[in-house]
Automatic annotation (TrEMBL):
Domain Methylated-DNA-[protein]-cysteine S-methyltransferase DNA binding stretches: 17-96
Membrane-spanning residues: none
Taxonomic lineage: Bacteria, Pseudomonadati, Pseudomonadota, Gammaproteobacteria, Pseudomonadales
Highest taxon of the lineage: Bacteria
A GO molecular-function annotation: catalytic activity
Key words, A-Z: DNA damage
Annotated source species: Pseudomonas laurentiana
GO terms (BP aspect): DNA repair
Keyword DNA damage attributed: yes
CDD domains: ATase (cd06445)
InterPro entries (alphabetical): ATL_DNA_repair, MethylDNA_cys_MeTrfase_DNA-bd, MethylDNA_cys_MeTrfase_DNAb, WH-like_DNA-bd_sf
Full protein name: MGMT family protein
């Protein structure tokens, strides 16, 4: 995997780019938490920033934003809202099992280091 390590003091554009590069690598059927994504992108403890940044993506984005969930596998986008329903539909279409508003991270969590050989 080509996970990017960044410097938290870098420009906002560079931080977003580092985030998007890692986000784009999450394979179908796998998920990561906001905090894991921040760490993998070299952004430290920036889970809330990741959430805000993903919330600002244009509707036309091809990035797999739906594969990012809250800590412990919880789906933080509210069911019954357009974005919450879209996230659930996309995850289910990729074979991700959702039970009680949670995804089993031991089954569907993305751990790129385990697949890098």
């Amino acid at each position: 995997m080509n996970v990017v390590a960044g410097d938290p003091r870098q420009t906002p554009e560079a931080r977003r780019t580092a985030l998007y590069v890692v986000l784009d690598q999450i394979p179908p059927g796998k998920v990561v938490s906001y905090g894991q994504l921040a760490e993998m992108a070299g952004l430290g403890r920036a889970a809330r920033w990741v959430g805000r940044t993903l919330g600002q993506l244009p509707d036309s984005t091809q990035l797999p934003w739906h594969r990012v969930i809250a800590a412990g596998g919880r789906l933080s986008l509210v069911q019954g809202t357009p974005s919450g329903d879209e996230q659930r539909a996309r995850l289910r279409a990729e074979g991700v099992t959702i039970r009680n508003n949670h995804v089993d991270m031991s089954c569907h969590g993305w751990r790129p280091m385990e697949h890098s050989g």
